[in-house]
Amino acid sequence: MEKYRIDQSKGLEFGIYTLGDHLPNPLTGERISAEQRIHEIIDYAKLADQAGIDFFSVGESHQEYFATQAHAVVLSAIAQATEKIKIASSSTIISTSDPVRVYENFATLDLISKGRAEIIAGRASRVGLFDLLGYNIRDYEELFEEKFDLLRQINEENIVNWSGEFRAPLRDAQVLPRPQSGSMPIWRAVGGSPASAMKAGYAGVPMFMAHLGGPVSVFKQTIDAYRGAAERGGFDPTELPVSTAGFFYAAETSQQALKDMYPHINEGMKRTNGQGFPKQHFAQGVDPQNVMNIGSPQEIIEKMLYQHEQFGHQRYIAQIDFGGMPYDKLMKNIEIIGTEILPAIKKHTAKK
Amino acid sequence: MKIVGLSGSNVGSKTRTAMDYTVKSIKENHSEVEVTLIDLADYDLQFSDGRNYLEYKGDTGYVVQTIMEADAIIIGTPIFQASIPATLKNIFDLLPVNAFRDKVVSMYATAGSQKHYLIIEQQLKPIVSYMKAQIVQSYVFIEEKDFQRKEIINEDVFFRIDRLVEDTVVLTETYKKIREAQEAAYDF
Question: Which residues of chain B lie closer than 8 angstroms to A138, CB-CB?
């Protein structure tokens, strides 16, 4: 796991991610300015760093109600404001970007942060950006595969010779600057379906898997499919890290956690996806067998340890700020993570 | 309560004629209902390309968003080649998988002959139930002989459409109450 800067003797890595959504607080109807939202995201990363959290990532969405379209720029400010925390994109839509430019940005970010940057590359769950950035949605699949391959080649080779369909060829090209240690971790973002996970496995790349909700057993099948595909592709699955991502909220009781978080998720989903989150599904989120980490700190610790036992993953990243969640609630959650959840998780998952 | 009457074809007149009567029946008998008529012949729709419905612009954006905002949809469809028209299927393709969750859907068909009586049962119902609709079980089937020069001439068709409208309104009200009671049971 060294190649991916993961030290399993320190236990499961705990991270935070934000989609960079910029939504009104459903309880007050008020929406902070984009300026304030971006500054709160930077402060949020700073707090996470101080609390000893391992990882922080920012997403890229080109549509209404989002503020971090230029996620590499936001990450650059985060790099400057933090000291130890790893920083990454979750995800960079590589399909509609030039891999050379993405690599230049993130290698620079790696130097600014002194070796803390990573790239998580995805295919976009919303496709409006294809029009905005001048790409054809019919090339959805091929654009991603070709550009993701090029991104990896740039990472692995100092002199790149490449040709493809969607970009001018590269002849003895040098992509500079190089990251601090010559290369950097690049993950493939996976939406949660086994087919998508298997693509990451066959390519032998680390998998970053998002899951909104549902039973642990279903996601375990996806992770098993990934590792199986990696093995068939000639890779050693024990060398490939897996990261899971999902909703997280800690409060005194699980009822309080549901109450605090539900309106944000429901209203936020309505605005960004067009349909709310059914209460029935959300209520199941506190069940020990459900992947959503919502509940009291002790319940969350137990859920996370159960998930770790099932998934054998190396990193978990939490989404807490979706849907105009007020900053004081984020601070409170970071405090709970730092003082109660992290120490327990690390203690029980550290590999001796 | 918002009801959308969806006339699912851009060819022919029978479905639109029946839809005009449907809208009239809603207005006359259920004044509390806000009804919107969407005749697909009036709009320039693009084919689904897989994006989220909120991302479609122009006529396509208007049609899918109006459908998504409705509490109930009454679909009227002609039968072409023993199946639903492509224009109507395209609407389903433009919408998300659970588009009809918490919505009531009722339907009628106009057709050249009795032979197509089961097309709604075998083709339309499976699609809308997959998309999670609460379906009004009985539907109306109207034949060529029930029309004369863009007018409905069979009194029974009026009775049946009136009943379909009433069933749609009652089921929508009832389902709303059921859902409210269910949501209230959760204390968050």
Answer: 49
